[in-house]
């Protein structure tokens, strides 16, 4: 059977459509992998003018207050002393729905936080889950397409979703979380937030630590059941936004406790899990949570479009003492997010008041649409020059980072020792209460019942194999709910 070749838009055939080119299997992505950038840049331009993902959102301003000393891990000024406060903006969102969609849909929730620090704005852009569906950014556009609308029917398609998930078992951990009642949180105030990615801290001695961020809701976890969420979609599609806005207006300010997990840099090389794999968590028994501070939301925006619709968050925006890691998904987002903002809001999106750093900003960027800051006036627009007083402060120089002395190639993200997609989802399911297990199974059966078409049986059987590998009882319960008789000998 003759097949069409996979090519770029310019017609060049290529082979590496799922794995980014990196320095060694766990090293950083190389800028030269233009297929990655072409896929992400085109994906960012698929919709105008709303966000391609996370279109339906709510936000509020607040403060972050340090309650515990973590200066042995980081020199970031916002953590410099107990009691220090930093102004913040936190935006919540659903992922797959359009701007007018219901905000109680079964979907991950975005948890995007902007800290307005004296060393610049720090954007911690995560979700309400500690993991994600994929581990390489080349897959992102393809994955999101399956969560959007079928190109023929223009309707959401369970067949597309489960076909993709069944072909990408690395998604199982996140899919299990999504199919539990955590996939339908009771508004924004009653869910946790996570940086999700592995980031890094640098202290005053230039020692590097890898770090995970956890924001634990002080309001307590509260979720809708699937039936309650479905009913609320029709009753009040803006329930989550209304709940957040009205509670803040009434002075019932929601809070989250920031905790971190810290891994010394040297341990990342020998830890039994890949610490930069976004589909995995770090077990708390190995890296317990460390208290840091309290985030409080205490002011609603005066104008939604001005402060929420125009808000732009990018994980590339870090501050001194906070850095990146070889997390492939994070590395892909470093270029993709600012590119999306420049497309959606313009080249000068960081001059919009909600995105503008409230402290001094000095650089040589000039011109572009909607330049509103005087455009540098008569000052030079090049560096170095003999006329202005802008100098480089060497005290902010980051320490050198040792990279793997490996061959740059397109490494399979699911090669041997990187392909255990079942242990953590299985452990998570076995940790659930009986009620949570029953609800999760009910939700999965309901979602998978929407699979149809000529490949229905193939997709269902493929996905059932993943559930069985995670936990036999989970697989059996789902199969029973779908009316499928399973031969256990064949499943072994």
TrEMBL record:
One Gene Ontology term of the molecular function aspect: catalase activity
SMART domains recorded: Catalase
Record has Hydrolase as a keyword: no
Polar residues: compositionally biased ranges: 1-10
Family according to the record: Belongs to the catalase family.
Tagged with keyword Protein biosynthesis: no
Keywords: Heme, Hydrogen peroxide, Iron, Metal-binding, Oxidoreductase, Peroxidase
InterPro entries per record: Catalase (IPR018028), Catalase_3 (IPR040333), Catalase_AS (IPR024708), Catalase_clade1/3 (IPR024711), Catalase_core (IPR011614), Catalase_immune_responsive (IPR010582), Catalase_sf (IPR020835)
Cofactor(s) needed by this chain: heme
Region described as Disordered: spans on this chain: 1-25
EC number: 1.11.1.6
A GO BP entry: hydrogen peroxide catabolic process
Entry's transmembrane regions: none
Residues given in the record as heme binding sites: 337
Domain Catalase core intervals: 7-391
SUPFAM superfamilies registered for this protein in UniProt: Heme-dependent catalase-like
Organism listed in the record: Flavobacterium arcticum
Catalytic reaction list: 2 H2O2 = O2 + 2 H2O
Name this polypeptide is given: catalase
